[in-house]
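Annual report, structural modelling task.

Input specification for the pyridoxal-5'-phosphate complex:
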Amino acid sequence: MHKQAGFMKALRCRECGREYPLTASHVCEFDFGPLEVVYDYDQIKRTLTRANLQTRPQTMWRYRELLPVAGEPTVGRQVGFTPLVRADRLARRLGLRELWIKNDTVNYPSLSFKDRVVSVALSRARELGFDTVACASTGNLANSVAANAAAAGLKAYVFIPADLEQGKVVNSLVYGAEVIGIKGHYDEVNRLCAEIAGKYGWAFVNVNMRPYYAEGSKSMGFEIAEQLGWTLPAHTVVCMASGSLLTKIHKSYQELVKLGLVQATPYRIHGAQATGCAPIATAQKAGLDFFKPVKPNTIAKSLAIGTPADGFYALKVMKETGGVADDVTDDEIREGIKLLAECEGIFAETAGGVTVGVAKKLIAAGRIPADDSAVLCVTGNGLKTLDAVAGHVGQTREIRPSLREFEGLLEAEAKPATHA
Ligand SMILES: *Cc1c(COP(=O)(O)O)cnc(C)c1O
Ligand SMILES: [Zn+2]
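The model returned the following structure:
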């Protein structure tokens, strides 16, 4: 094993299998296939055991052998191991025997699952000698890059669509990152970033660092299995932007099986999108292997990627595991946010509303059978997308600071609605 590589062996093209050194690169020179990190699983098996894991801190880095850094992580060492919440009240509302919420709304430090991918990408970027990091983002990635770069003393440039939610913009600016709003959709932001990445010597977490970055998503799947007592859930529902998280949850389950940490029980991975940007779900429902790009128009801005980089592979994972996809309208997204909040006390952003809304549909349609068990991946915090639900969640009643007025209010509300 090479000293500089930790448990990694190489980058390998997903299409032709050609191998590349472990540098900041993401596409195969021959067929433009995406590069993926290859590991030495025999070596990993020796140290990544259930017994060893019991002695490790409760962060995503407890699975460090399966994360692509050569040495010890230096950025985001506290990230991950978010709660897996048994959601009995929501289960009853949706008509399912057993339901769990993987709650990444409280991930550290920037309140979304993106802290997982960013801590890996920035730790690796430092190992490769970068001092400036950057990203093309639908919002949460920008927040996480800005926060983690600040804590690590790295310079950060984040590129976002100019029309993002206020909460997401402020959440990037406050850390002192250079925030560039692009007048266009995410797909145009992404295209520009590919050009910039080629010209400047920066570590773009989801462009030239993408092979490392994407691996960070696996930690969500490792945690789910461990928190379920080293078993795989029969159903996992994942919201999709580029589709990367969905594919990496599948990879995480497969790696745990390969290492003998869980039994190879059948599982299905289902994908969730917003109707206003559902290229992957539309293809899945039509039984196609390829998606058709779309122009996004949805309140779920964090998922608004019309040309999803991993859409093809996400479709493949759903096909292989027997999973399906579906999509929900903006109203159903708000309903999903409220349902989760009212039943479980968890305030998710629009992406969480997508996951809950789609899970509801899949259960109603029998795609997730009522006597089964499911995990919903809830990936971002509702405080960042207040604009999406403001005006749809009821209203405060204002009174003067007087007991009489308060009791008058209670009395008025106790009266039947017909009393005018
Ligand atoms: C980025 C993101 C996702 C999923 O992203 P993929 O590109 O599909 O990996 C899901 N939820 C939230 C809140 C996100 O910010
Ligand atoms: Zn190739």
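The chain has a mean pLDDT of 96.
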